[in-house]
Specification:
The protein has 159 residues and is mostly beta strands. The chain contains one helix and ten strands, in the order H-E-E-E-E-E-E-E-E-E-E. It has a single domain, classed as Sandwich (Immunoglobulin-like). The protein has a five-stranded antiparallel beta sheet, with no helix packed on it. A five-stranded mixed beta sheet has the order 4-10-9-6-7, with no helix packed on it. The longest helix has 17 residues.
């Protein structure tokens, strides 16, 4: 399949599906195949599939994401940065799967972002906009739809 056809497919079918996902008023998300990954293809019914196999290959907090790569990863961010991203990549992804980025501030759930993964590998991220009241300890739990925690990323928002 040509790159042009993949882009057309993405904007006609996948992009509207991403936009239709419920996203918190404070959070935004996106997902895209990891570089060199083919576009998602229709999957068989769950009864025809084996067990779901997904492996979190990379997770980090960062100041932004460019070209599907984290920029300025850190564990402490100034509130003046304005936003913080949680970047994750999975390899392999055996079938389309939902994951969640669950953002906690001072052990209270602040927002939860639902993200969809597609085979064979997928990278995605979510972002929150920072406010002055967001200073303090944070964590993001990366989970599947059954609550299995792949990783927990801890970071702080400072002056």
């Amino acid at each position: 399949m040509s790159a042009r056809l993949i882009n057309v497919w993405f904007f006609l079918f996948l992009f509207p599906a991403i936009l239709s996902l419920p996203v918190s008023a404070r959070a935004q998300s996106t997902g895209q195949p990891s570089p060199a990954a083919p576009s998602p293809s229709p999957s068989p019914a769950p009864s025809e599939q084996g067990p779901v196999k997904i492996v979190l290959s990379h997770a980090t907090m960062c100041e932004k994401v460019e070209s599907l790569a984290p920029v300025r990863p850190a564990v402490a961010f100034s509130a003046s940065v304005g936003q913080v991203y949680c970047f994750t990549s999975f390899d392999p992804v055996s079938q389309p799967t939902l994951i969640y980025h669950r953002w906690f501030h001072r052990d209270e759930l602040s927002t939860q972002t639902r993200l969809r993964l597609y085979p064979p590998r997928w990278a995605t991220y979510s972002v929150i906009q920072l406010r002055e009241t967001d200073k303090g300890p944070w964590r993001v739990e990366i989970t599947d739809q059954n609550g299995r925690v792949f990783d927990t990323l801890r970071f702080s928002i400072t002056d």
